[in-house]
Structures are given as structure tokens and as C-alpha cells.
């Protein structure tokens, strides 16, 4: 009975996830097939099962010899995610899933169906090391980086949910992916970019998504923004600014002690100039902290210095407060005054539609809730 040759990967370190097909580039998949003693065409065949048919269980692949399916499963399709809990809101069109990884680390992803699209909010790290005091993930600290496969398989699982009819009204595949879940994406640069390339690769090597449908969020790691700029991909960059002045931003976004507001906004402007993609400035509205009209005017001043308004859009976010935290959402009248000030200054601005507050919707809240219940 034929069997696969054993693969020799780097010996796994403590906490390191097992190697998976989704960790590999198309070229690496073909090389891996050869190392397994398989003809190269098997790599494309396997990838079609994964990306076209959304199947990661070799046992059901009837066009692959039965004698090698178990070895394939063991060597290249280990289980990466185990569902801990799933919560729904908005009549089932918002689905938040808490996943457990092989080492017990927790991560979250949120699938949202809108009238004309399906969007997945995806995690890039288990926890986060940026320590923003108003963020549940930041307060929990960084557990570890996710692997390329652990990031990509969140999109795979979301597409499976849509295909299975588990999200009312959702059809087809994911249209948008936003790296706004747990973690700072640009602090885990290589796996995140590997996952993005898999999302963009056309069949049979990937999901065939549009780069314009992928948003990468950052609190402002300037060297990594510059590196992303050099990639030349028309992704959407979202910068979590949250304050237009260094005095306040030093407090609420600690990385500002390393890269100041002007440096972050300069890097964002350079990204927009290179990619011709409008940058989103994310601004979580916090009561009596950053929601004053004076700060709205200061934000307009900061953005205006970089050129006309075509390069940027401000996305105001009503804060989804963490239970017991002093950080809470702005009053509606303060939101309106902030928006009116920006509009009067000619700054493109929208107020984000909030979802999932009743299911611990903000990133890190569900993981924190489950961890505290099991402590």
C-alpha cells in the first residue's frame, strides 16, 4: 500500500503551531508535494479542494488515492481551530466566534452580513501587546503571534459558514476582510502578509479576493507602514489615531511614545500617495476624553497639512465599553458636535454602524469574558 514520505519541518518550539497547507506559498506547496513523493499536479488538486470546495478533510477527497489521505491529513492538515462558543446578534447576521488554538490560546473573529456584502473581522495575534487602556484585548496582553495558517483559516471557516447557510441572507464568499480583530497586524508582519497573499491569489492557489476588499489596521507602527507602502498592493490602510495631539495620544495609545502623531500621519499620507487608496483614520469616541470640539478642529488641522481631503476619511467609532472600565462611549450630542465640526472643515467623516454590543462585540471582550469565567 503506497504511503507518503515523511516531511521534515523545523522542530516545533513550545507554543508553535503545527505546519499546515495554508502556511505554504503555491511554490512551496508544489515543492512539498514532491518531497512527499507525489507528482506536482497533486498540489493544485489539493488546493482546489481547499480553496474552491472549502474542504480541508482529505478523507473526503475521492480523486486523491485513498491510501495517502490519512498521511496527508496528519502531515499537512492538522486541526488549527476548535470552536469554544459562537454568539449571534442582529437577527443572526452578526456572528462572533471564539476559537481555541492548539496551545489553548484564544482568538476571536466576527462575520457580518450586510445587504450587499459579507465582511469578516479577523485576528492576527492571540492578545495584543499595544496596551491601549480602553481596549479589552490590549489590557489582556500579548499571548503570541498567529501563524499564517491560523490567520488564513479564519477566512476559510467564515466561507464555510456562508456556504452552509449558517448566516441568514449571506451567499457566495467573503467580500471584505478587515484586520481589526485581536492583535496589531503590523507587529506580526510576515504571517499577515502571507495570509493576505493567499486571500488574493486566484484559484486554485487562493481565495481570489480583491486587494480593495482587504483592510489592514494599525495603531501606527511607522516602519511597518512604510514597508507596507513598498509592497505596492492597493489594500486599505486604517490608522487607529484616536487623538490628534501627542499629549493625549501618549496616554491612550502608548505606542505614540515611540512614533508621534505627525510621524504616523506622514506615513499614512505617503501610503495613500503611493497606492492611490484613501486612508481611513479610526477614531474611537470616548466620553470627555477625546470627543471635544477643540479636538475635532485639531484633527482637521493635522490632516489638512498633508494635502487635500481626497487622501483620507475619518471613521468615528462609538466605543463599545469594557465592563467595569472608566472608558465609555461619548454622549450623542458630543458625537454630533464632533461630526459637524469636521464636516464644516470639509473633512470626510462617517460614524461607524456598531454591531454586536450584546454579544461582547468589541475585540477581546468575549475572550476576556470566557477566560474570567473559567479562572
What labels would you give this structure?
DNA polymerase, domain 1; Probable dual-specificity RNA methyltransferase RlmN; about 35% helix; alpha/beta; two-stranded antiparallel ribbon; TIM Barrel; metal-binding; iron-sulfur; 12 helices; elongated
The residue ranges in which pLDDT falls below 50 over 5 or more consecutive positions are 8-13
Care to count the β-strands?
12
CATH superfamily of the largest domain: Aldolase class I
Please tally the helical runs, counting DSSP H or I stretches of 4 or more residues.
Answer: 12
CATH topology of the largest domain: TIM Barrel
> What would you say the CATH architecture of the largest domain is?
Alpha-Beta Barrel
Keywords: 4Fe-4S, Cytoplasm, Disulfide bond, Iron, Iron-sulfur, Metal-binding, Methyltransferase, rRNA processing, S-adenosyl-L-methionine, Transferase, tRNA processing
GO biological process, one term: rRNA base methylation
Protein name: Probable dual-specificity RNA methyltransferase RlmN
Main location: cytoplasm
Description of the molecule:
The chain is α/β, with parallel strands linked by helices and 375 residues long. It has two domains: 21-76, DNA polymerase, domain 1 (Orthogonal Bundle); 84-374, TIM Barrel, CATH 3.20.20. The protein contains twelve helices and twelve strands. The strands form two sheets. The chain has a ten-stranded mixed beta sheet with strand order 1-2-3-4-7-8-9-10-11-12, covered by helices on one side. It has a two-stranded antiparallel sheet with strand order 5-6. The longest helix is centred in the middle third of the chain and has 16 residues, at 148-163. The protein is elongated and about 70 Å long. The model is unreliable at 8-13 (pLDDT under 50). It is found in: Cytoplasm. Its main location: cytoplasm. Belongs to the radical SAM superfamily. RlmN family. S-adenosyl-L-methionine binds at residues 183-184, 217, 240-242, 320.
